[in-house]
Amino acid sequence: MATSPSITGGEKKHWWLRNKKIVDKYVKDARGLIATQEQSEIASALNLLDAALVLSPRFEVALELKARSLLYLRRFKDVADMLQDYIPSLKMVSDDSSSENSSQQLSRERMKLLSSSNNSSSDSLIRDPSFKCFSVSDLKKKVMAGLCKNCEKEGQWRYLVLGQACCHLGLMEDAMVLLQTGKRLAMAALRRESICWSDDSFSLSNFRITNDITTNVAPATPPRTEFESITQLLSHIKLLLRRKTAAIAALDASLYSEAIRHFSKILDGRRGAPQGFLSECFMHRATAYRSAGRIAESIADCNRTLALDPTCIQALSTRAALLESIRCLPDCLHDLEHLKLLYNSILRDRKLPGPVWKRHNVQYREIPGKLCALTTKIQELKQRVASGETGNVDYYALIGLRRGCSRSELERAHLLLCLRHKPDKSTNFVDRCEFSDDRDLDSVKDRAKMSALLLYRLLQKGYSSVMTTIMDEEAAERQRKKAAAAVAALQATAIQSQQRQTQEQQPIKESELENKSTPQQQTSTASVFQGVFCRDLAAVGNLLSQAAFNRPIPMKYEALTC
Fold first, then answer.
1. What number of other Cβ atoms are within 10 A of residue 338's Cβ?
2. Phi and psi, residue 503, nearest 5°
3. pTM: predicted TM-score of the whole model, two decimal places
C-alpha cells in the first residue's frame, strides 16, 4: 500500500514526458510541411497541429502555427472563431450584455462571503483590515489577466494574425486596433530585447537560422517582410476608414451628394475592399440615394448588399420600403415574406444570423416586436393587392422624372439608368471585392444577376409606360393644335366675310349720299369742270376736296398749259 503512490507518480511522469515528445514531433513535422507553402501540405500540417493541441491545448507554438496556417489558407472565419476573445467589438458587446447581471452577481457573491454565524466576526473585520469583501468573478478576471499578461510577452502574434483576419472579414475598426496593438507590442519587445543585448550580441552567429522547434518560445518579433506588409495594410485600412467616416458625417449632415461621392470613392476604387466592408458601404450609399430621391440607384445598391450578404435585415427592409413607395406591391410583399422567414429563423436559433463576431444593426431583443409589426404590414399589403392596386406603379418616381416631362428627358434618363444597371454589368463590383471564402463567388454573381435583371425589367416597363403616356399627351396636344387651327380658320373666314359685307355696303352708302345731294351740285358736277388756269394741280385738288368733291371729276386738260 505504501508503494502505490510512487508507482502512480512514475506512470504520470512517464505519460507527460511521452506526450511532450509527441507534441514536439507533431509541431516539427507541421513546420516542415508549412515551409513548402503548398496548400495541400499546409492542410496536412493543420491536422498534425490539431492532434498536438489535443494533447497540449495551451502550447503556444502550435497555436501560432495553426493560426498562421489558417490565415495562409484564407480561412479567415476559422481564425476569428479561434481568437474571438481578442476581438474588441465582441468584447464591448459582451460587456454591455453582461452589465445588467453583473451588479446582482457581485452582491450575491459578497453576501456569501460575509459570515453571519456570530457577532464576533464584525469585530474581527474591524481589527483585521486585510480581510475585505471581494468578488470571486473579479478575482478570476484578475488571475486570467495576469496569465494573459505573462503569455503576451511571447504572444504578440495573436493581434497581428487576428488583425489581418478581421481586415479580410470587413471588421476594419477591429483590424486597425488589433494591428496597432500588435505592432506596438512587437516594437516594445524588440526595444526591451535590444536594451538587454550587449554590443557583441548583435553578431550574425547569435541569430538562429534553423526552423526546428525544440522549445516553447515563439519569435518575439515578426519578420521584416511581414512587418512591412502589416504597415501597408494598416495604412490602407486607415484610408478606407477616413473615407467612410467622412461619408457618414456628410450623410448625417443631409449632404447626400457629398456622401454619395465619398462612398463611391470606396466602392469604385482601384484597390479592392473586403466583402463585409463593401456590403456596409453599399447599404450606406443606398440610404443616401433614397434620401436624395434616386430610387432606382437605391434599389440597385440594396441588391448588391443582399448579393454580398443575403441575411442583411436593413437591406431587405429598405428595399421593401422603396418598392412600397413606388406602389410596386408584389415585389414588396416578396421582400417582406423573406424578412419574415429570416425573423422566424432568428427566433428559432435564438441568435442573430452568422457568427458571433458579425455586426448587425438590430439586437436580438428587438426581433419579436419587429416580427409582430411585419406580420401586420404583410396583411395590409395583401388587402391592397386584393383590392386591385397592383397596376398603379409610380414609374416617374422610379426613373426620377417629373410628371409632364418631355420625350427627350425620358430618353436621357432611361439611357443613363440602362448604362448603369444593365444586367451584363451587374457583376462588375465583384471584381473589386475580396471574398473571405472563394466558394461564395459563384453564388454572389448569381444573386447579383438575378436582382439586376428584375430591376432592369422594371425600368423597361416603366420606360414603356411613361413613353406611352408621353405619346398620348403629344397626340392630345396635336389634336388641340388642330382644333385651335380650325377655330382660327373659321374666325379668319368670318372676318373676311364681314370685310366683304362692309365693302359691299360702302358703295351703297356712297350712292345714298349722292342721292341726298342738291340738284345744282349734281348738274354742276355732271358737266365738265372748266376753271381758271393754274400751274399747281395739287392746290386744285385740295380746293376740290374741300368743296366735297369726293368722286372723279371729268376735266379738260387743253387749257392746263403754261
1. 15
2. -65, -35
3. 0.70
